[in-house]
Design goal:
Number of helices: 15
Subcellular location: Cytoplasm, Cytoskeleton, Spindle
Pfam family, one: HMMR_C
GO molecular function: ATP binding
Number of strands: 0
Radius of gyration: 61 Å
Distance between the termini: 59 Å
InterPro entries: HMMR_C, KIF15/KIN-12
Strand content: under 5%
Largest sheet: none
Structural class: mainly alpha
Keywords: ATP-binding, Coiled coil, Cytoplasm, Cytoskeleton, Microtubule, Motor protein, Nucleotide-binding
Length: 1023
């Protein structure tokens, strides 16, 4: 872990500083300067692996904190993106519905200009309001929103279920346990390091290193356990991933089938609504016509009570009877009334026909509903199977691509192996020719062999003699080396003893000097105190002398009065004076003793300085001896190197002879193995060619099926176009016929105007009666509404196709974004790998330099320690050797861990490469689907343009027919006014013609319905 963390943190500067320091030490040692304690302290710093572990743990904590912060940022950004996507989708839906409403209202407004009555306008407005309410309900309960909510709910449930799984829980618990263990180990190590820092001067080196080694071993064991657990959890996760993938595929197939079923149901709802509206409008029209027929009077008051023909089958018979007897009852029939029994019979027949028709319609409707229900179920099953088949086809296509790639690789390998086979064949031929030549040469060489064997035996005896001599010399050299090693060890022991004695003397000297300095300071302080005491005593003596003088004067004055008191006072003063004089004498004796001790200490210091100078001279002599021993050791090492080189040369010659012999054997074995490999490759090539042939046959069959499908679709399109062209030709012929009729009617009107001028006076009373009574019923057809509804349904389907295209484009953009993110991550990982490899190479170079410098230092130390031969100390050397061995083992283990990490990184790279390949495949499939969609959309647009042209032509023809019909109706009214409803035969012909026109228009509407159904089915099959 220490080496890995050095590489990751980039601690190359520390290694460079260590290399510089070691170079400086080498230079100092070569020049002869020997720092006494720097080597030991620096060796301690080198082997301190706890610092590396602490650095690794700190770096791990920092990386975890950064990872947490980045994860939080990523979650926030994902939430924001989801919110924005939802907002955009809702806005798109709202805009789409508004545009649909606007287009519908514009079309209705254009259609309603001048053609609708106020009642019809109110009805249309109410229908539009109903549609607006339904659209609002659809917006509130949209299936996509519900689908997204269900998907989110299912994904959350899956996440919870995955989190509640036992392997995931176990992995989390194991991670938590390992983290807790590592944190405990880190806290213990930090506590140990703090205690070691506090007790660094007193704790020796030998106690720290075994603890660190034991900790590292424990941590390595924990690492191995964690790796095994990780591998187990990875296997479980992969198994669970496969199960979830299969389940996801099944759910997607079900979801798509349900979506298609929903779309079909929506289309059916819209179609049923349109059909119901049409039926309601037709029923209203029929009801209005029947009301008109019923309410029209059967007689004209002032036209001699003549019956009016009705839209029933009985009127036709009545007209025919009337025409037969018109010659006989020309004047009497006008006065006869129509019997009421006939009217009642007609009404009963009409009601019976209506009831039978309604029963038939209800039965047919029930059958239709049942069949539609069955069709929906079958459609769901078909959609499910289609989705499953598409998924299987995608899997097969991916597998085919993989197989083709493998086949290409195998073919390339086969070509390479064929080339190798040809080369080996040529080599074999060449070798056969050489063998033939060698056989010829062998006969001649056999004779020479006997002489060569004799020479070889003599040469072998001489070589054996030389080898024995060299072995004896080698043994002698090894003995000399052993002796030199013993001398070196003795010198090292003596050096260590001298170093210890020198250190002890220095410490004793320091301790004695400190004690003497303290004694001197104490003596000085005592002298100062004594001097101050003496000064005080002198002052007291002077004060007492003055006092004595005063007392003597007082004594002389008061001799007579106080002689006894003065005597007593003098005795007390004398006693005090004697005591103080004794104290002074004692202090003077102490001062003399201290001065004597000072002189003794100064003599000791001078003697110690002399001994130090002598020790320095001895050390200089020892250094000279060490340098002389170094020179002698260098000479001996040179002689040893020369002997070793001679031994190596002899061994190389012997090994080269053995290698040549083994190479010939290996060549023969390799050729045999190559022949076997070539046989296997040939067999595999034959199998691969058979598989390729089968695959090509399957592809051919699939291509032929697709061709047949495309030809059938093109035929259907051509049939549709032909039918549309036929309808156009029929309508053109109709327009021409109507124009011809118009011209005829105009001529008839002109003739009748002339007749009217002649018969004006005779028919004044007839015109008055015609002005008072209502006219015969009219049935103007309205077909624009049906065409508008058909156009609306087709526009809705086109808009649905556009919406599906936009959703697919959105999915493609998402996939491209994911691919770009993954590519960026892969590039970042590659850059990190390059940086890691560069750092590893630099660290390896620096370590090699460090090892070389350490080896040079060890050699110099050994040469230096050979000079000291007095005090043996083998344990320290053994400890140092064991430490160096442990360091090397630890370094080798660290290198192995680095190699393992590199292998893991290579596996991650391979996984990333596989993911990139999968992304590329997905993008290729998406592009392929996009091209297919674009082709389908272009075909739809072409069909739509053709349909729009057809509908425009139909609208023109319908407008022209309506204009012509209006003109015909106007002419008929004028004709009726002119004729005065006298010609019943002409009226019957007019009614028959109207019926025929109604039948023809009904047939045209049925054709249009059939075309619409066919187009819908075609669009569904294309989608």
């Amino acid at each position: 872990m220490a080496v890995v963390n050095e590489d990751t943190q980039g601690n190359v500067s520390q290694l460079q500083a260590e290399v510089k320091r070691l170079k400086e030490q080498l230079a100092e040692l070569v020049s002869g300067q020997t720092p006494p304690e720097s080597f030991l302290t620096r060796d301690k710093k080198k082997t301190n692996y706890m610092e590396y572990f602490q650095e690794a743990m700190l770096f791990f904590k920092k990386s975890e904190q950064e990872k947490k912060s980045l994860i939080e940022k990523v979650t926030q950004l994902e939430d924001l993106t989801l919110k924005k996507e939802k907002f955009i989708q809702s806005n798109k839906m709202i805009v789409k519905f508004r545009e649909d409403q606007i287009t519908r209202l514009e079309k209705l407004h254009k259609e309603s200009r001048g053609s609708f009555l106020p009642e019809e306008q109110n009805r249309l407005l109410s229908e539009l309001r109903d549609e607006i309410q339904t659209l609002r309900e659809q917006i509130e309960h949209h299936p996509r929103v519900a689908k997204y909510a269900m998907e989110n709910h299912s994904l959350r449930e899956e996440n919870r279920r995955l989190r509640l799984l036992e392997p995931v829980k176990r992995a989390q618990e194991m991670d938590a346990q390992t983290i807790a263990k590592l944190e405990k180990a880190f806290s213990e190590i930090s506590g140990i390091e703090k205690s070691d820092k506090n007790q660094q001067g007193f704790s020796p080196k030998a106690q720290k290193e075994p603890c660190s080694f034991a900790n590292t071993e424990k941590l390595k064991a924990q690492l191995l356990q964690i790796q095994t657990e990780l591998n187990n959890s990875k296997q479980e996760y992969e198994e669970f991933k496969e199960l979830t993938r299969k389940r996801q595929l099944e759910l997607e197939s079900e979801l798509q089938s349900l979506q298609k079923a929903n779309l079909n149901l929506e289309n059916l709802l819209e179609a049923t609504k349109a059909c119901k509206r049409q039926e309601v409008s037709q029923l209203n029209k029929i009801h209005a016509e029947t009301l008109k027929i019923i309410t029209t009077p059967t007689k004209v008051c002032q036209l001699r009570s003549r019956p009016v023909p009705k839209l029933s089958p009985e009127t036709g018979s009545f007209g025919s009877l009337y025409t037969q007897n018109s010659s006989i009852l020309d004047n009497d029939i006008l006065n006869e009334p129509v019997p009421p029994e006939m009217n009642e019979q007609a009404f009963e027949a009409i009601s019976e026909e209506l009831s039978t028709m309604q029963e038939q319609i209800s039965a047919l409707q029930a059958k239709l509903d049942e069949e539609e229900h069955k069709n929906l179920k079958l459609q769901q099953l078909v959609d499910k199977l289609e989705h499953h088949s598409t998924q299987m086809q995608e899997l097969f296509s991916s597998e085919r691509i993989d197989w083709t790639k493998q086949q290409e690789e195998l073919l390339s390998q086969l070509n390479v192996l064929e080339k190798q086979l040809q080369e080996t064949q040529t080599k074999n031929d060449f070798l056969k020719s050489e063998v033939h030549d060698l056989r010829v040469v062998l006969h001649s060489a056999d004779k020479e062999l006997s002489s060569v064997k004799l020479e070889y035996s003599s040469f072998k005896t001489s070589q054996e003699k030389e080898f024995n001599k060299l072995s004896e010399r080698h043994m002698h050299v090894q003995l000399q080396l052993d002796n030199l090693r013993l001398e070196n060890e003795k010198l090292l022991e003596s050096k260590a003893c001298l170093q210890d004695s020198y250190d002890n003397l220095q410490e004793v000297m320091k301790f004695e000097i400190d004690q003497l300095s303290r004694n001197l300071q104490n003596c000085k302080k005592e002298n100062e105190t004594l001097k101050s005491d003496l000064n005080n005593l002198m002052e007291l003596l002077e004060a007492e002398k003055e006092r004595n003088n005063k007392l003597s004067l007082q004594f002389e004055e008061d001799k007579e009065n106080s002689s006894k008191e003065i005597l007593k006072v003098l005795e007390a003063v004398r006693q005090e004076k004697q005591k103080e004089m004794a104290k002074c004498e004692q202090q003077m004796a102490k001062v003399q003793k201290l001065e004597d001790s000072l002189l003794a200490t100064e003599k000791v210091i001078s003697s110690l300085e002399k001994s130090r100078d002598s020790d320095k001279k001895v050390v200089a002599d020892l250094m000279n001896q060490i340098q002389e021993l170094r020179t002698s050791v260098c000479e001996k090492t040179e002689t040893i190197d020369t002997l070793k080189e001679e031994l190596k040369d002899i061994n190389c010659k012997y090994n080269s002879a053995l290698v040549d012999r083994e190479e010939s054997r290996v060549l023969i074995k390799k050729q045999e193995v190559d022949i076997l490999d070539l046989k296997e490759t040939l067999r595999l090539r034959i199998l691969s060619e058979d598989i390729e042939r089968d695959m090509l046959c399957e592809d051919l069959a699939h291509a032929t099926e697709q061709l047949n499908m495309l030809t059938e679709a093109s035929k259907k399109h051509s049939v549709l176009l032909q039918s549309a062209q036929e309808e156009l030709t029929k309508k053109e012929a109709l327009i021409q016929e109507l124009q011809h009729k118009l011209n005829q009617k105009k001529e008839e009107v002109e003739q009748k105007k002339n007749e009217y001028n002649f018969k004006m006076r005779q028919l004044e009373h007839v015109m008055d009666s015609a002005a008072e009574d209502p006219q015969s019923p009219k049935t103007p057809p309205h077909f624009q509404t049906h065409l508008a509804k058909l156009l609306e349904t087709q526009e809705q389907e086109i808009e649905d196709g556009r919406a599906s295209k936009t959703s697919l484009e959105h999915l493609v953009t998402k996939l491209n974004e994911d691919r770009e993110v993954k590519n960026a991550e892969i590039l970042r990982m590659k850059e990190q790998l390059c940086e890691m490899e560069n750092l590893r190479l630099e660290s390896q170079q620096l370590r090699e330099k460090n090892w070389l410098l350490q080896g040079q230092l060890d050699d110099i130390k050994r040469q230096k320690d050979n000079s000291d031969q007095n005090h043996p100390d083998n344990q320290q050397l053994k400890n140092e050797q064991e430490e160096s061995i442990k360091e090397r083992l630890a370094k080798s283990k660290i290198v192995e861990e680095m190699l393992k990490m590199k292998a893991d990184l290579e596996e991650v790279q391979s996984a990333l490469y596989n993911k990139e390949m999968e992304c590329l495949r997905m993008t290729e499939e998406v592009e392929r689907t996009r091209t297919l969609e674009s082709k389908a959309f272009q075909e739809k647009e072409q069909l739509r343009s053709k349909l729009e042209e057809m509908y425009e032509e139909r609208e023109r023809t319908s407008q022209e027919t309506e204009m012509l019909r209006k003109q015909v109706e106007c002419l008929a009214e004028e004709n009726g006014k002119l004729v005065g409803h006298q010609n019943l035969h002409q009226k019957i012909q007019y009614v028959v013609r109207l019926k025929k026109e109604n039948v023809r228009l009904a047939e045209e509407t049925e054709k249009l319905r059939a075309e619409n159904v066919f187009l819908k089915e075609k669009k569904r099959s294309e989608s």
